[in-house]
Amino acid sequence: MRPSYRVRIALEYKGLDFEYVPVHLVRSGGEQYSPEYCALNPQSRVPTLESPDGVLTQSMAILEWLEEVYPEPALLPRSPGERARVRALAQIMVADVQPLQNTAVTRFLQGSLNADDAALKTWLREWVSRGLRAFEEMLARAPDGGDFCVGDAPTLADVCLVPQCHSARRFGVEPALYPRIAHIERACAELPAFQRAAPDRQPDAVA
Prior knowledge:
The structure is a single chain. By secondary structure, the protein is mainly alpha-helical. 54% of the residues lie in helices and 4% in strands. It is built from 9 helices and 2 strands, in the order H-H-E-E-H-H-H-H-H-H-H. It has helices at 2-13, 35-40, 59-69, 80-97, 103-111, 117-140, 156-170, 179-189, 192-197; strands spanning 48-51, 54-57. Strand 1 and strand 2 (54-57) form a beta hairpin. Helix 4 packs parallel to helix 7 (156-170). The protein starts with a helix and ends in a 10-residue tail after the last helix.
């Protein structure tokens, strides 16, 4: 869900028309494992974007493609240093935190390592908390104090942070404990693109 959420935010922020096709990650053993979906994405992961350049997979690759093909409004700053900082923040969420809470990982912990619900919750809270703490520390060391992760406009870092905040609450970790993160999440929540991309606004949202 988090990777798809990221891509929806970027699509909405850039004002692009797109067709949303839900893929339920649990129903029927996970619709991402269906032959039809595997024909699009052999990794059986979401999201998958059918684009003029072919079928694109992996959320960060899709986000970078969107930034290159549709550069305005920008989700990367102009300066190389700030771009590097945005990408570093994004990778904390995308590479360090999210993989440890993927459905495939939690299923393995439960099915192959016999982790019970309590152990799984401990696992999730530990890694999500570590990621948010590191993210908050990096924000605190930044030279600017804008409303967003880097400066006064959303970047790919914000696009990756907001979905993780949503997931953190599901796992019992409260992003409000981290002042800068909480401020940024509130700023993003005021933007129509982030509102339209929210999980509860999607056609397949559970009432």
